[in-house]
Design goal:
Elements (H helix, E strand, L loop, with lengths): L2 H22 L4 H41 L2 H4 L1 H28 L7 H13 L6 H4 L5 H7 L5 H6 L6 H18 L1 H44 L1 H33 L4 H7 L1 H10 L2 H14 L5 H14 L2 H17 L6 H16 L9 H10 L8 H4 L2 H25 L3
Helix pairs in contact: 1-10, 2-9, 2-10, 2-18, 4-11, 4-15, 4-16, 4-17, 4-20, 5-10, 9-10, 11-16, 11-20, 13-14, 13-20, 14-15, 14-20, 15-20, 16-17, 16-18, 16-20
């Protein structure tokens, strides 16, 4: 049985058992004990392995992604256009997601008593719902200054307490500097970060093997505590994500292809349908890359030197479907746990989601570690991600379609003036 099927089975079994216990044995001390001391810790083991790899994964992924984008000097205006389109589409994607979450508020609806139970369960697992930090608001000037870390090592130690964005900026500086000093001088460092990135991905892979049991435990502990309220909220969350992804896929990209590439959106989507289907079935931008290159050359008739460059960079750096998903997920879970975010904090989430899009691995589940640290930076326990983990596979498949479509959209737009 494939891993995603095992995870889905864990979701079904954990949810069914939890709902059964919630209906038949409400407030039963034995069920509460099982949820707190067996089911929840089972999920926490899985999550802690993910947490363990988060910081080195973020640093290495961002450094590599930016260093590759930094090759724009060699390609000239093609590289600059690629970078600008990447930032434009990622920004639009996250703002779509944040706007929809703020309008529909899918995470709101839990009764106060149920919310307290959830908080108590997380507190017992060692996670902290830091409402005090969530309600802190800094002046704009201080936010800008805090982007530049005085001590990157200290920021690494405090990454789970709000230091992540400064760490991201530090990683971007390293990537830019590596591309600036030349390949010969930066080769050893690039090999180090490539190796670090691969090793951290392998640790995440180890963690994902435990995911079916972890999801079972987490869903049992949540549904046995909350009952059907959790299922309703989860359903709203899935619908909101799919709506936002569809808007970006069929509105933003369609407009971009029409305006910048002077091409019919219907023709464009028809030409790349094979890539979209492959992306959906594999949930991996990296696996889909060879087919995307072939389709760009044969179907879209793009020059190989342009499409190969843009698509290779995009597989790492242009993860705007992931950026949109991360923005929605972070705000949904903040609403779920009753953490109110002001405008400044929401802008911080937007910026971090855009940067995280650059640092996300193009493999199934690659965005989960980054969501964890964005959550913790705003005072929401990273363990809260367990609530959405069971439905992540279908959303992962959907946002991967957006990622690879975005790569091909950028390649088409960039190539228009270069043909």
């Amino acid at each position: 049985m494939k891993l995603h099927k095992k995870i889905f089975l864990g979701l079904i079994v954990g949810t069914s058992l939890g709902l059964f216990c919630n209906l038949i044995f409400p407030e039963n001390k034995n069920i509460v004990w099982i949820a707190s001391n067996i089911a929840n810790p089972l999920g926490q083991i899985f999550l802690r392995i993910v947490f363990m790899a988060v910081i080195p994964l973020v640093i290495s992924a961002l450094v590599i992604g930016v260093a590759e984008i930094g090759d724009v000097k060699k390609i000239g205006k093609i590289g600059v256009k690629t970078l600008l389109f990447t930032l434009l589409f990622s920004s639009i994607a996250v703002f779509i997601g944040v706007g929809i979450v703020n309008y529909f508020k899918p995470g709101i609806g839990l009764e106060e008593g149920t919310k307290i139970k959830m908080m108590e369960m997380l507190q017992s697992s060692g996670a902290k719902l830091n409402l005090e930090r969530a309600n802190q608001s800094k002046p704009f000037v201080q936010i800008v200054l805090d982007l530049i870390p005085k001590n990157p090592i200290a920021e690494m130690l405090n990454a789970f307490d709000g230091g992540l964005i400064a760490l991201m900026v530090f990683s971007i500086f390293i990537g830019i500097a590596m591309s600036s000093v030349g390949e010969e001088k930066s080769e050893a460092l690039k090999k180090f970060f490539d190796s670090l990135f691969s090793v951290m991905l392998k640790i995440i892979e180890f963690a994902m093997k435990l995911a079916p049991l972890g999801v079972l435990g987490l869903m049992f502990s949540v549904t046995s505590t909350i009952g059907f309220d959790a299922i309703k909220l989860l359903g709203k969350y899935v619908i909101i994500v799919l709506i936002a992804l569809s808007i970006h896929q069929f509105v933003t990209y369609a407009i971009a292809v029409k305006i910048f590439a002077k091409k019919s959106p219907l023709t464009f989507f028809r030409d790349i349908k094979e890539v979209m289907i492959t992306a959906f079935s594999t949930s991996s931008s990296n696996i889909t890359l060879p087919l995307a290159m072939q389709v760009a050359e044969n179907n879209l008739k793009l020059p190989r030197k342009i499409s190969n460059f843009v698509l290779t960079i995009g597989a790492t750096a242009n993860q705007n479907g992931t950026a949109l998903y991360e923005g929605i997920t972070v705000l949904f879970l903040a609403q779920f746990f009753g953490v109110e975010l002001n405008l400044t904090q929401q802008i911080t989430v937007v910026v971090m989601s855009i940067l995280a899009g650059v640092g996300t691995a193009g493999v199934p589940g690659g965005s989960l570690p980054l969501i964890v640290i964005v959550l913790q930076s705003i005072g929401v326990p990273g363990e809260g991600i367990g609530i959405i983990l069971g439905v992540d596979r279908i959303l992962d498949m959907s946002r991967t379609v957006l990622n690879v479509t975005g790569d091909l959209t950028i390649a088409t737009c960039v190539a228009k003036d270069e043909i």
